[in-house]
Amino acid sequence: MTASKKAQTRQVKGKAKAAAGRAVGNEHTTAEGHAEKPKGGAREANERAKGAFKR
After folding, report:
1. What is the spatial distance between Cα 41 and Cα 50, in angstroms, rounded to a whole number?
2. The whole model's pTM is what?
3. Which of 21, 23, 28, 44 could form a disulfide with 7 if both were Cys (CB 3.0 to 4.6 A apart)?
């Protein structure tokens, strides 16, 4: 799996965790999910930047 796919997976996992936390009323899990989404986005942006310099 490429680093970009891992980043996208992390974003999706964060969204799912936040949704699950909201569904059961667990604020801690919701917060963890919201915290994971930007990490995946930052990693994906980093991979795009690397790709731009390789060309």
Report:
1. 14
2. 0.70
3. 44
Cβ distance 29 to 17 under 8 Å? yes
**Pick from 16, 15, 11: which is nearest to 43 by CA?**
11
pLDDT tens for each residue of 16-35? 999 999 999 999 999 999 88
The tens digit of pLDDT for each residue in 2-17 reads 777 888 888 888 899 9
Q: At what angle do helices 3-24 and 27-54 cross, to 10 degrees?
A: 160
List % helix, strand, coil for the chain (3-state, nearest 5). 90, 0, 10
